[in-house]
Design brief:
Length: about 375
């Protein structure tokens, strides 16, 4: 096998890259990764240095992996800040680190995309060894593969880590009321009350896809996006406006935008991506805080979209225990980690074992609070 590294996704054609993705999962598509880089949202200057891996056998491209040299841990959603602090306390540099992930996107999916005729097990073994060798060459502290599909993992010396998200699953529902029929009476009344509250405030909602989203609406949504990040984090968000312009053109068929209007003015928006089986909730913003609107725009409209399209799952993003009472179930997400310093690797392995035990308890407790009737 020959391993080559790209300083930009533009160094390979969309046709070559996408031929190995062989699914419509939106976030490993060339168009999505290119929009991040060409907009300047992902660059050396932002601490995300593209270092994409391409694997060749006899000059044939057999695998690709979105890969970055990171100078911080922002925008990842698998938190290793305490690891970095421990490194620093002991006089070691945690950054740079090598990261296989989709920037700013905590959505499970393929991270190593393999030609269907290739030996997947052999490729995972070879790529795992290569990532470690590359990290050593770069004098990076570690290698991290985030939010990979459970079947797609790296064996020892990589360490497995789990986390919990809340996803909605389509049980063959025919409409939203069919979904609510599975709720306990009190929980169903609470959710219906939330939806009525939005209507009573004179707010109307609309789901737009593809070319239905005008340039003016995109500009309004970007304003909401910046405003929300400014309130929460004190900055205008990771993504530049040009990123949204680019995906509006190149990925229109995989975008669904919920907009909320009050007195004909757009007051909020929730951006989603989708493929043939899942909806992925990504960004939300509003001009003013209106009662229950976040739940309606970010969750209930998405559920209705899934039911209409026959999508199997709604991945609404990281964190959010408030999703449980709205029918989102706790699920495991997976990542793999390798650290160069043996002492730290041993300590973190012990930490991960304890964390896994606690997560099992947490997941069980979350499940007890789901709103569904006993079966």
């Amino acid at each position: 096998m020959e391993f080559r590294y790209l300083h930009s996704i533009s160094e390979i054609s969309a046709q070559q890259w996408d031929s190995l993705v062989h699914s419509d999962y939106p976030f490993t598509r060339h168009a999505f990764l290119a929009a991040l880089e060409l907009s300047g949202s992902v660059a050396v200057a932002t601490g995300w240095q593209p270092h994409h891996l391409c694997v060749y056998q006899a000059e044939q491209l057999v695998a690709v992996m979105p890969l970055y040299i990171k100078q911080h841990s922002y925008g990842e959603y698998i938190f290793d800040w305490s690891w970095a602090e421990a490194y620093q306390r002991h006089g070691y540099n945690y950054y740079p680190k090598l990261l296989a992930a989709i920037p700013f996107t905590p959505a499970t999916g393929p991270r190593l995309c393999i030609h269907p005729d290739s030996d997947a097990a052999a490729l995972y073994e070879a790529v795992g060894q290569q990532l470690i060798a590359q990290a050593q060459q770069l004098q990076a502290s570690s290698v991290h593969v985030l939010y990979h599909s459970q079947a797609n993992h790296f064996n020892a010396p990589f360490m497995a880590r789990s986390s919990v998200q809340f996803h909605w699953f389509n049980q063959g529902y025919t409409c939203f009321d069919d979904f609510l029929a599975q709720f306990k009476s009190r929980k169903r009344k609470t959710l219906n009350k939330e939806r009525r509250s939005v209507k009573q405030q004179g707010i109307s909602l609309q789901r737009l896809s593809g070319n239905e989203i005008s340039e003016e609406i995109w500009q309004q949504f970007y304003y909401f996006y910046q405003l929300t990040y400014a309130k929460r984090s004190g900055h205008g968000g990771y993504l530049k406006q040009d990123f949204f312009k680019r995906i509006a053109s190149s990925m229109a068929d995989q975008i669904m935008l919920v907009i909320a209007r009050k007195d004909q003015d757009i007051v909020a928006g929730a951006l989603n991506f989708f493929d043939s089986h899942s909806l992925y909730g990504r960004y939300w913003g509003c001009s003013e805080e209106l009662e229950q609107l976040h739940f309606e725009a970010c969750y209930y409209q998405g559920i209705e979209f899934c039911i209409e399209r026959g999508l199997q799952r709604f991945d609404s993003g990281a964190q959010g225990e408030h999703k449980i009472q709205r029918g989102f179930q706790p699920v495991d997400t997976h990542s793999s980690h390798w650290l160069a310093q043996p002492d730290f690797a041993h300590a973190i392995q012990q930490f991960l074992q304890q964390e896994t035990t606690e997560l099992k308890r947490y997941k069980l407790q979350c499940s007890k609070h789901l709103p569904f009737k006993a079966t």
